[in-house]
Amino acid sequence: MDWHLLGLSFITVFLSELGDKSQLAAIALGGNSKSPRAVFLGAAAALLVASLLGVIVGEETAQLLPAQWVKIVAAVGFAVMAVRLLLPTSDSTEDAN
After folding, report:
1. Phi-psi category of 19—alpha, beta or left, where left has phi over 0 and alpha has psi -120 to 50?
2. Which of 10, 29, 88, 96 is the most exposed place for a label (fewest CB within 10 A)?
3. Is the per-residue pLDDT at 92 higher than 70?
């Protein structure tokens, strides 16, 4: 087992999930629930499955494409999301008027 990679993955995912929508959803569900243990187990299982899917897709993608291309595609994807978040949508401009 590569303990360095395990620790790096844990820290990266843990820090990226702080304040994330999924954490806010877990807070809301936990606050409204009489069984916070069920909320924790459901949220942990969902994060586990989502991470498993990400690793499987990443591994398969790395088999098909060079790592440089995957990094470029990820960078372009994040740039597109950032631009979309910065630009106002037609709904928000109508609300402002």
Report:
1. left
2. 96
3. no
Look up the pTM and report it: 0.62
- 8: which 2 tokens? 């790096």
User: Of all residues in the chain, what percent are helix, strand and coil, respectively (each to 5)?
Assistant: 85, 0, 15
Kindly tell me if the per-residue pLDDT of 94 is higher than 80: no
Instruction: Give the CA count within 13 Å in the CB-facing half-sphere of 12.
Output: 7
CA 45 vs CA 22, 25, 39, 50, 94: distances in Å:
12, 14, 10, 9, 40
Cα 54 to Cα 27, 46, 92, 97: the distances in Å are 24, 12, 32, 41
